[in-house]
Each structure stands twice: as structure tokens, then as C-alpha cells.
Amino acid sequence: MKNDIPVYDIQNFKAYKNDGILVSRFGHYAQQHQHLHSAHRHSFFHLVFFTQGSGSQQIDFKRFGVKPGLIYFMVPGQVHSWDFETVPDGYIINFSSDYLSSFLLQPNYLENFSFFNGQPDSQVILLPAETQAKLVAIFEDILKEGQNEKPINDDLVKTLLLRLFIEVARSTNVMHTAPGSSYNHTLLKNFQRLIDQNYAQLRLPKQYASLLYITPNHLNALCNDFLGQSAGTLIRERVILEAKRLLINLDLMVAEIATKLNFADQSYFIKFFKKYEGITPEKFRKLNTTPHGTK
């Protein structure tokens, strides 16, 4: 049994049409890639729309049910696994981080959609019946385009993919940021990006506020207004998330993880983790790496 959690790149999969995208019926994909049912990470964007099946899945250690009409989205780096109780089907699309970049003038266009924010609770959506029907038609058009042998580029597929995102966003009323809030929204996105880049070295809101050229109070107010959480909580949650991702790699000792996350020593890391998660790192590791059905 492989101990290290695998990270899959878009090149690990047979291309659907061009190298940057894979589109398939989910039943076929799940059957063909049984190894993907256990915990793994992607270096690409990933979405699945279920038309049948039941069970559960985990995205970054949060568990969600699987049912027809449910769609979920994932961003690169997240940890994911499935546990199906009945045979699933639907549609899956994987696409690389730069697949849409040459097609759009806005390089961060996907940030307009809350289901690409990297927060699992926003990424799993049960769609109304009307939207489900629209999405099935879009997926079928994308699959049909993949069978088109005429030598044309991928623009139609990219257009259909964007339409899919917009239909989901409209059905959940999460389409763009409110008018007049673009400056603060940009600040918040930049803060989140800085956390992703520096969570192991910078732990204090004032350090990030300095990088953003605003006061710590402004940063804190921004986070509370948009997300209902303090800036310090966002930083801490990112550290804990990375700790969890590292803990399911059984090749790493807890002391090594503490060092990777820039804790002074192992005991401080253990106290920090237990304070906010309620269990020790070793207990978390055991709960999340034990095969299904065993204790």
C-alpha cells in the first residue's frame, strides 16, 4: 500500500481533445480510475456532476453526501476521496490551470465564482431541476464536440465550459461580487493569495497588512465583513489545513511536519493542533488513513 498521498497532473489522464482538458461520463471514469477513490490531490481544476449514485466524498477532510443533481468543484491542491454505496454516473471535467487563460482577458476570471474559492462548503452544490437539465445539455454538447474530427480549436468547448459556470452561479445567486466592492474584494483575494504563499512563515495579521499597505484593523474589518471571520482565523485555518494534508502522508513524521510548518518544536505543533481540532495530530492521522471498515 502506497503511503505517500499521490498528486495527479492533467498529463496523467488521456486527453479528451486537447492536452489541457479531460471530459468523460463519470461512470466510465470512476470504473477506469479505481485508484482515485482513495485520498489524492490534483494539480488541475476538477468538477463532477452526479446524475445517479449515492455515498459520500471528502474535500479537504470535510465529508459531503453524493446524490443525483449534486455538482462539486475543486481547485488545484485540494485533497479528495470518494466512497460510493451505489454505482455512480454523471459527468466529469478536469482542466489545467492555464486552459482558459489564453481565451480570457482576465487571468483571475474564475475567482468571480464562489465555488472556485477553495472553501469546501461553497464548492458542493445541489442544483434545482431546471439547472440540472441545462447542465446535462451542456455536458452532452461538450462530449459531442470531443468527437468532432474537424480541425478546429477548442474555443467552442471553452465557451460551453464558461456557460456551465454561469448557469451554476445564476442558480445559486453567487455570480459576481457586488458593485462598488471591487477594491475591497481585490484586497481580500490578495490577502488569501498571500496566505497561500506565506502561511508557514507569516502568522500575524499585521505582517499581511503591511504587505497589502493597509492597517491591521482595516484587514480585520475586511475579513469580518466579507467572510464573518477574523484575519487571524483565516491564517490559522490555512496552517491547520496544510497540517492535515501533510499528516495523511504516512512517510512524514509529526516532527518533520512541525518543521515544515515552521513551528518551534514538535510539542508546540501538537498543542496548537489539538487546541483547534480537539484531537492530536497522531489521532487525526489514524482516523484519516485507516482503511474503510476498520478502526
From TrEMBL:
Keyword Disulfide bond (UniProt): no
Domain of life, source organism: Bacteria
Domain HTH araC/xylS-type: residue ranges: 189-287
Annotated InterPro entries: AraC-bd, Homeodomain-like_sf, HTH-like, HTH_AraC, Tscrpt_reg_AraC-type_HTH
Pfam families: AraC_binding (PF02311), HTH_18 (PF12833)
Keyword check for Ribosomal protein: no
SUPFAM superfamilies: Homeodomain-like, Regulatory protein AraC
Keywords annotated in UniProt: DNA-binding, Transcription, Transcription regulation
Name of protein: Helix-turn-helix transcriptional regulator
Organism: Pedobacter albus
